[in-house]
Design brief:
This protein has about 425 residues and is mostly helical. It has helices spanning about 1-15, 25-55, 60-80, 85-90, 90-110, 130-145, 155, 160-175, 180-195, 200-220, 220-230, 240-255, 280-310, 315-340, 360-375, 380-414, and strands spanning about 110, 115-120, 125. The protein folds into 2 domains: about 1-380, no CATH class; about 390-414.
């Protein structure tokens, strides 16, 4: 074990061009490709009729998603090739660009469905809130790494992080984007927890954040209506809870094995936004409970590989960044599936790697590229332990063989 630690130390101390890179985590990429493949199939199934009505082309949304996917793989490759340690040096420009994008959205963003979350880039739209998730993962990982043991104190561990995340959340709430705000606050508390901040401080900050969230909800009639619709959706089935109630009925109609791929009725206009935020409903209706179990297993595998990368990272920044990104993907998937089931109020969050949409797919795949970059520079502790056990077993086998030879020679002398 000492030899392994010395090798890891040599790798960390070596110049960047001389570092020995490990193969990137292929299983993580396999899981992501499985989610992407399932997403393409379900996007076509959920959107074909709508695309035919609106664009006279049943494959309109599928074609656009394929173009997004090509660009997403290019971004993933860029994230893989860039040494993730570079983000430590660029964290302040990254934060500045992120804040500038959110300010631009607040001042001159595009509005759709009573939310101003997009800006126009060329002939396409982009949602800066998706990039904000990745950027804040970098910022938090850098901050807790830089503060070290001081992160355990309230003034260093809680106050500055709550201030910067609070600023970002404030800009997001101008859109408004409550779902991304919840994700960022949850990620902040999770990163602080694994970094060693006292639980009592985190609970105190959580109580303060909850009080602020209560004020934001109670001061907005629209948000209060959504809360009431969540508490009693069937009483609001004809208006604000229409989407959720239709989603729950569609999920129930899927049964164990579903109605069959392409045979779901939600695509006929019963469930709005079926190919985006509510694509999980299409999966449940057409593939049934078995399909839901499949995607849950895939997301659990993604989280497992991400946590494994975080544990194997050779530096604290890599550990915290890998954990933050993994937490984002896992929590967003969990919230989305909870929303379509009526377990939490609607948040406007996509199902990562499956839902239709360019901004979410591009940023999520870039995040996967960063995870793969961290895995390339990680020390495979499990592989080292297995190799060490193999050497011990081999040495024991030779020792037993030597003992048998010695016993045989003793018997011959007698």
């Amino acid at each position: 074990m000492e030899r392994v630690e010395s090798k890891v130390s040599l790798v960390l101390d070596a110049p960047e061009e001389e570092r020995e890179e490990q193969p990137w985590d292929g299983w993580l990429l396999v899981v992501v490709c499985a989610l992407l493949g399932l997403g393409l199939v379900m996007i076509f199934s959920a959107s074909s009729i709508t695309a035919q009505w609106q664009h006279n082309d049943s494959t309109f949304f599928l074609k656009r998603q394929l173009l997004f996917l090509l660009a997403a793989f290019a971004l993933m490759y860029a994230g893989l090739r860039i040494d993730y340690r570079w983000y430590q040096r660029a964290v302040y420009p990254i934060l500045g660009v992120t804040l500038a994008l959110l300010v631009i959205v607040a001042m001159s963003g595009l509005t759709a469905n009573n939310a101003t979350r997009w800006i126009r880039v060329g002939g396409m739209t982009f949602q800066p809130g998706e990039w904000t998730k990745i950027a804040m993962a970098m910022v938090l990982a850098y901050s807790v790494t830089k503060k070290g043991e001081q992160v355990k104190s309230f003034t260093v561990g809680i106050v500055p992080h709550l201030a910067i995340v609070g600023l970002v959340v404030g800009l997001l709430m101008l859109q408004p984007d409550f779902g991304t705000s919840v994700l960022l606050l949850s990620m902040m508390f999770a990163v602080l927890f694994v970094a060693g901040t006292r639980i009592s401080y985190i609970l105190l900050a959580l109580v303060c954040s909850s009080a602020a969230a209560y004020h934001l909800i109670s001061s907005s009639p629209y948000r209060m209506k959504r809360v009431m619709a969540f508490l009693d959706p069937w009483a609001h089935q004809g208006d604000i809870a229409y989407q959720v109630t239709e989603s729950m009925m569609a999920i129930g109609s899927g049964g164990i094995v579903g109605q069959g791929l392409g045979d779901g009725l939600g695509k006929l206009g019963f469930v709005p936004e079926l190919e985006t935020d509510f694509i999980g409903t299409a999966i449940a209706q057409e593939l049934g409970f078995a399909g839901v179990v499949l995607i849950v297993v895939l997301y659990l595998l993604l989280v497992w590989r991400g946590i494994r990368i975080a544990l194997a990272a050779t530096d604290n920044f890599g550990k915290y960044l890998a954990f933050a990104l993994t937490f984002l993907f896992g929590l967003q998937a969990a919230i989305n599936l909870a929303v379509i089931s009526g377990l939490v109020p609607t948040k406007g969050l996509t199902l990562p790697f499956i839902s239709y949409g360019g901004s979410s797919l591009l940023c999520s795949m870039f995040g996967i590229g960063i995870l793969l970059s961290i895995s390339r520079c990680a020390s495979d502790e499990w592989k080292s332990k297995r190799a060490e056990k193999d050497r011990e077993r081999e040495a024991l086998r030779w020792e037993r063989k030597r003992e048998r030879i010695m016993m045989r020679r003793l018997e011959e002398r007698r």
